[in-house]
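Late entry, written up from scratch paper. The run itself happened at the end of the previous shift, but nothing got recorded in the book at the time, so transcribing now.
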Amino acid sequence: MDQRRDALAHWATAIIRQQTGFEIPAELEMVSGDASFRRYFRLCWLDHSWIAVDAPADKEDNPRFVRIAEDWFKRGVHVPKVIAHDFVQGFMLLQDFGDQILWPVLHSEEANRTSVLHHYQQAIDELLRIQALSCTQLPPYDNALLLQEMALFPDWLCDQQLAMALTADERKLLDDAFAYLAELALAQPIVTVHRDYHSRNLMLDSDQRIAVIDFQDAVAGPATYDLVSLLRDCYVRWPAEWVDELASYYWQHARRLGIWHSDWSDFRQAFDAMGLQRHLKAAGIFARLNLRDGKNGYLASIPNTCQYLLDVSAHDPHLVPFHQWLVMRFMPALEQFELGCSES
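Output as recorded:
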């Protein structure tokens, strides 16, 4: 028996009855869970639907979610409207954008270069709306947080998942690389950062407009962070020329809006360095989700994420030791782990 699900259903139907007069059955359809403790359910009645969220108050910062959602909604970002919330119980009732996550649309049989680039340009347009918002009330994506995130890579992936037993010299090599990447990140324009802006956290609503979800961890941080999350997605790899074209699309529009001021070469260096920071973080998180939370489905995304590290670090002369370490030490350990997984 799922007592929280039952309580959520009765709470949500009572709210709907108060606001619309609809007497609907307290029956929830599971929509999804995610990497957090949140669960999403759908309530349907005739041609109406709502999303009911179970987000335990002791594990999720629901006031933060609601505060950001209401602020962004009011300012024209396409996030779900918050219809009601109960912070004590950890329940929310949201506008329903439907089931069309962007990721499967990009990989459908009908998808082609033109449609993929069109959807990504829409996502970049929405991202620019987010970046135009004031970020003064958001926590800073500062040096300490950037370094803390990159530390997930050696701590969870190298040491625990791959059992690499890093030496003091290896730790020093990684610390030097991380400090360099954090320095480049903090030299960028500081904007509102969604922090998980990619094709699994974007939707297409009934009008085929990009809709934004999972924004509760927003911070004030580097301007390329969300762009690299989108274009160098941990869950998919697009041709380099597509990524270049879309990065240029962002850069040109961001310059016109006054978000970005420097030239293309500086922008590309910042974009590449930011990607390394994010992929170090993401690879560590995927290992943590497996080891700590028992969510082993994320292991499949580690090889693609780490291939980005190898490819991008090869082009930065400041990262020669880090790149060589990846080639000689890390990638063989990862390949051995993959081989073990495939044989088990």
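The beta strands are 29-33, 39-45, 48-54, 82-86, 91-95, 190-193, 202-204, 210-212, 219-222.
(Scratch paper discarded after transcription.)
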